[in-house]
Amino acid sequence: MRSHISTLPDSMLAEILKRLSLKTLLICRSVQKSWYHFLQTPHFTNLHFTYQQINLNKYLLFKDIFENHVLSLRYDDEKCKESRVKPEIPPALSAKHEKLKLLSSFGLICLHCDATSFPRCVKYAFFDIYLWNPIVRKLKRVPDVPGIPARLFSSRIYWRNLAFGYVPEINDYVVVAIISFNDGDVSYDDDDHDDYDGLRYSNNTFSVVKREARSLFICVYRLSTNLWKKIIRKDEYPFGEIDTSFEPVVVNGTAIWRMMYGIPDLLYYDTMEDLLGIIRVPTEAYNRRWSNLIPPPMALLGQSIVCFNKDLDFQESGLYIWTLKEGDKRRRKLKNVHSRGEMYFWEKKICVGLEESARLDFVGSRNNGELIFPKLYQCHLVSYNVEKGEVNDFVQFWYKWFSHGIARGKNHYGFEDRKLDIIAVPFSVHPFVESLVLLDGDSL
After folding, report:
1. Where is the F-box domain (predicted)?
2. Residues 151, 396: Cα–Cα separation, whole Å
3. Looking at 176, 205, 237, which one is the last position of a domain?
4. Predicted TM-score (pTM) of this structure
5. Whole-angstrom Cα distance, residue 225 to residue 148?
6. Could you tell me if residue 400 is inside a domain?
């Protein structure tokens, strides 16, 4: 029997093995040496990844919003039982950084330290970045972001952030690092001065010196090559800062961040075509309260982004949905960072009422594209099918999933509402699939 197995052509062997679960495949590596190497080839990794997205078990990754290191991997079905795989942050990383940022996409998690938690005297803009496959318990350290000028002290940095995601077009994972900084020469009113990193020293005091326009430092890392590509865009930057409440995403190779101040725009960088731009969020998607603009919730659904509007009146459950669409790429190449024309546009898809079924506090999304909302007054979750306009019961009694249990919520005036007894959901939900990627990485 063993001799017959060893003589199977690779194509037939791949057709057989791709149908097996990841747990079974890890056992199969011990059958014979040729299988061990075959299962780690990019060809089979991609083949198994594509097949299991359609046919095998799918998961949901629950992130505790109060304790960033607490994760739970559960099956994406009606029972939503917890998987035997316990995605625990590697102890070396949790001890090294007080606060880690977690970005997940198609079976991998990007771990990096939160730059805002470090003092302003830190010299470099980014620190350790890791890619982690919690299913196979493998970890890979990403090479340092290259080419950051040594003079780029934090006093020159306005903001910095990372985006991470899977790009189906090239079948690869990318990390996009972006820094908004001032790269111009320091200018003074006179020539008699002492230069101290952009500050003027006079009469035993330092004063801030006006600099030239901001620039963007962008680096793109690809897992397949293990290399970074560096781009510097001078005098092209959006006003404001990155909105850290919105998790950066990568959609079809385009990294997207949400900006703050005024009417927040979306800043995007197309890694495939080296295009930088701004997307205006539809103004009708904003709620107004006391003359303030409240940004709409946004969700990543597959390789698309949706934003939706909710009425701040607790008794109203109207849901208005817009989907981000890609414009004509031939026209996009003629645009610059301040253009909004045909590069991207929003399509208003549907307006529905969830009646008394759910509270419109977005929690996450499922692998089938359904949006997840908490049920009114209860520790239940419902999922909403956008295309069919259907509300489905999803999860009951989630309050025992995390150690801190139930957190009392606040009403839209910002005060704790005991009468309404609103229950705040203490986690976010993200689609997650099994992947053999990083099988050759470092074991934990």
Report:
1. 2-54
2. 54
3. 237
4. 0.77
5. 20
6. yes
